[in-house]
Design goal:
The chain is an alpha/beta fold and 418 residues long. The protein has helices at 12-21, 35-43, 56-64, 66-71, 88-98, 117-122, 137-140, 147-153, 166-174, 178-181, 186-208, 216-226, 234-238, 245-257, 286-293, 297-302, 304-323, 371-380, and strands at 24-28, 49-52, 77-80, 105-109, 127-131, 159-160, 230-231, 261-264, 280-283, 330-336, 342-349, 353-359, 384-391, 395-400, 403-407. It has two domains: 12-131, Rossmann fold (3-Layer(aba) Sandwich); 137-412, no CATH class. The chain has 18 helices and 15 strands.
Length: 418
Amino acid sequence: MPRTPLYPRYAERPLTEALADSPAALIHGPRQCGKTTLARMVGEPRGYAYISFDDDVACGAAKADPAGFVGRLPERVILDEVQRVPALFTALKREIDRRRVPGRFLLTGSAQVLLLPRLSESLAGRMEILRLHPLAQCELERQHPTFLDELFSGGFGTIHRDRLADTLVERVAAGGYPAALARKTGRRRANWYRDYVNAQIQRDVRDMARITALDVMPRLLIATASQTARLYNLSDLAAPFQLSRPTIGDYVGLLEKTFLIDRLPPWHSNRLSRLVKTPKLHIGDSGLGCALVGADAAALAKRRSLLGQFLETFVLQELKRQASWHDAALSFYHYRDKDRAEVDIVIERGALAVAGVEVKASATVTPTDFRGLRKLRKAAGERFAGGVVLYDGEIGASFGDGLHAVPFGMLWQKWPAR
């Protein structure tokens, strides 16, 4: 019987829709984020068989004879951790072209297929790709948030909410991996995260590339966690290691391909030449990052600068998780100009609308906190839909001209009807 998740996964709806009209659907995301559970929950009641390539026999058979392996598959099948058998994608392409039936193959993968061109191109037009993240706060709370809709409609009104205070810091430190959240204490969660990183690097990273200094990878990931929410600086990352900058750059790319880190590209406008064009670096989950740098909730509360970094990453990841099942196509960026005016998160809805989110760890907001958002509004022109300063206060209120202060809790809750 399929396992029922402890929490709802809002990616279930887009996955079901993809299986209804696409020959193949791929759920990709980091290991232990819930891909297998979701695939089996959706697929097994519909008659899908299940095969995991973490099983050495299945993996060896598929590598030895990809075409024969695919030809002998059941009518509908879940293929788990397909990144371990890259040759399988070509065989799946041939089988789909031979008999194009919606929903034949439900795949999962722990490597970012969009960054592996040979794999993604082989099934272009034949496979829908869905990103699954660790649990979002709205899934943990069983809420159906409207933050993204309100952001682009300019619909935020005045509201009063209790401060989250210590609860917010605890959420940041806990992160969203289901197995980590099942542990009762922060110390036990941190142990899980550290073991998870070692297993991930030993398994998926080693499978993807021949790395001469595999022991560097955990230390490099710790270095990236310490720089989360900062501009990507390869020289700083490479400095502690006896390896060349290009090599460290390649290793950063591998961490990105396995969803352990994200590079947030800069937002740009053709009308402006004063924008900083360096991406920002973010750890893939705030709880993972906190465990790597040895910061529990108490340590974050004392070190405000570190809390600011991880809070920004926490908000970015929550928004990306919500966007993964949103009906609109949303893209994420950051904004920074040469006068150091910045917006932590810029979201584009297609080519039509731009919105900004600034993250502030304090309990108050002043007009000066909207400096970067005002510059973004000017740069985006008619496309600007709205801007928000998220803060740990009690009042949600308008600051005029599409700018709003919003308490953090409303990020994962439904905005009340007015």
